Amino acid sequence: MTIDGTQEAPRDCALDGQLPFDVFARNCPSRDTLGHVTGRWGSLTLGALREDTLRFNELRRRVEGVSEKMLSQTLHALERDGLVHREAQPTNPPRVDYRLTPLGQDITKRLMGLIDLVEARMPDVLAARKSYDGGR
Amino acid sequence: MTIDGTQEAPRDCALDGQLPFDVFARNCPSRDTLGHVTGRWGSLTLGALREDTLRFNELRRRVEGVSEKMLSQTLHALERDGLVHREAQPTNPPRVDYRLTPLGQDITKRLMGLIDLVEARMPDVLAARKSYDGGR
């Protein structure tokens, strides 16, 4: 990094198989996947699937506030990244189940570690907000 | 959760100090904080600060692709949540340093655990994408 404010060369990432993947690099595909995992609806969808196979409408109820369209887009992105498995059941009426893949389970475990910590530390966060809002 | 598709009552969260914070509840403030931590620019900003105190322009270079306005908004939200400390140095020209608070360090540690895993598993993600795109 330059001290004088001049632009650094953009980082490279593992597209040629030589360098590690790097979310700090602008064009690294790992940045998209991190976004799918940690985006508002992506994170809640993975979290909702951590224990259960769920149907679309079950997921929609579990993830309060998500629209049908956003949940559908979220599930497509997670399925394409190999984190969620979609299975159409040959029932009448037809039914579609969603569950985490083994990769999705690994990643969701880490994600839940983060979510659990954020929830646990919310009293500190709210105290900080109160002090910030009062001090300005 | 109801099986027949009727609406469940919205979840409650710890606003009255009785229930735990719950990111799955629509109005829980933990959902906002999770969004600040895991949003595209929030996660990269916390990650960039995990080892160093950085100035605004240093941060901007480290988090490739972020605009001045987005970085400024991101830092304000993280500061208000008590995750980032902002310190104006009495130098000439004036200089503003940003660093993680102890709470920010705890949360960033979990976040980096997730980021490291996503980066490490990108070969699997890219293989899944290839298979998904080829199979449709």
TrEMBL record, chains A, B:
Any Pfam family: HxlR
InterPro entries registered for this protein in UniProt: HTH_HxlR, WH-like_DNA-bd_sf, WH_DNA-bd_sf
GO molecular function: DNA binding
Source taxon at top rank: Bacteria
Residue stretches making up the HTH hxlR-type domain: 28-126
Keyword annotations from UniProtKB, A to Z: DNA-binding, Transcription, Transcription regulation
PANTHER family to which the protein is assigned, alphabetical: HTH-TYPE TRANSCRIPTIONAL REGULATOR YODB (PTHR33204:SF37), TRANSCRIPTIONAL REGULATOR, MARR FAMILY (PTHR33204)
Protein name: DNA-binding HxlR family transcriptional regulator
